[in-house]
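Cross-check.
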Amino acid sequence: NRSQNAEIREGKLFIIARQEDYGGRDYTSARLVSRGKVSWLYGRIEIKARLPEGQGLWPAIWMLPAQNTYGGWPQSGEIDIMELLGHEPQTVHGTVHYGEPWPDNSHTGDSYTRDASSFAETYNEFQIDWTPDSIKWYVNDRQFYSITPDSLQPHRYPFDQPFYLLLNVAVGGNWPGNPDASTDFPQTMSIEYVRVYQQEQYGD
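Predicted model, tokenized:
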């Protein structure tokens, strides 16, 4: 909860990862969470953002259940609207997690790769369309993945309950690996807006 890692400036949200000695760690960053404030069941969820890049960086826009209706993670589900590995700045991933408790958990997803510029160069829209029948992933209105309840068989389909939103930039981790000498700091995920559109029957 430090302004050095998250701030509103010129109408945009900035989540800033820094290389600094703080609390016995080598890096700081921030995670913003709408849990307990607002959650949604179905609709179009759209975030316009510019992403950081560099080895060891892991920006994510994702969702978790407001109530663990079907049990702890991942039985009640996780929706990853966008994840990026900083050493692959032209590719974003959309994923869901579900199934049995760890270590028997399951996930499925796909990726979207730009032909030229990286996601660090410009703002882009990351979107899902979420209905009772499917979840569809988009970048700038271009669909690159979808699931249906049948997609997760024989596992329970947990995406029929309200989820809240998380925005964060992780540093390190098993998937991206650690930063190295090539990683420049500070690195920022800039968010121009978060928008949620719902049909009247889906509103809560």
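The two ends are 29 Å apart (CA to CA). The mean pLDDT is 96. Passed to J.P. for a second look.
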